[in-house]
Amino acid sequence: MSGRLDTCIFVGRFQPLHKGHMEAIRYAASRCGRLVVCVGSAQERGTSRNPMPADDRLKTLRMAIPSGRICGCRISYMKVPDFMDDDAWFAYITGRVPRIDAVFSGNAWVRSIFRSRGIMTVVPPWHERKELSATRIRSLIRHGRPWKKLVPREALRELSREEAVIRSSSGRGRHSRRIPPSGRSRTNRAAGRN
User: Fold this and answer.
1) What is the DSSP string of the chain?
2) Domain total of the chain
3) pLDDT tens readout for residues 53-107
4) What is the CATH number of the domain that holds 80?
5) N or C: which end of the chain has fewer CB within 10 A?
């Protein structure tokens, strides 16, 4: 990729936001003028995999990026629910961000949706992948083990408030609510990385 792209998106669930996410967002932001951070599985909350509601995840992102800019790139946010239909999921995003130059995601399914429609996809480098995993951080929280050094300092206060939500969600199922299918019936896998 040469030169700076105009508008890009970064898709993730941020359950919870951690330093690996922030490094990946910085990587994407350094390559575009505007980055829309998509908070995936927006309708999910209170499950073991998706304990935090989308509004709380957005709040932690805004706390971690208080200026709304990284590397000179304007950062904006968008909640993206899951759909049972890849075309509907794609249409939802492109209906709100009509011109996308590139998609940054570590999720193969997300990349395949955009790549199959001719949009460039990029796998951002993942900082300390084994250590910085939202799945691992949720497990540490549930077991009362140290986790705070793994999340951005700026978002720590909010994430500390979410600790009880994450702990209490350990016995619930993987998914709470789905948006019904429209058209082709293919289950939308969780958007973005952990």
Assistant:
1) --S-EEEEEEEE--TT--HHHHHHHHHHHTTEEEEEEEE-STT--SSSS--S-HHHHHHHHHHHSTTSEETTEEEEEEE---BS-HHHHHHHHHHHS---SEEE-S-HHHHHHHHTTT-EEE----TTTTT--HHHHHHHHHTT---GGGS-GGGHHHHHHHHHHHHHTTTS-S-S--BPP-SS--PPPPSSB-
2) 1
3) 999 999 999 999 999 999 999 999 999 999 999 999 999 999 999 999 999 999 9
4) 3.40.50.620
5) N
- Read off the pLDDT of residues 93-119 as tens digits, 9 standing for 90 and up: 999 999 999 999 999 999 999 999 999
The answer to pTM > 0.70 is yes
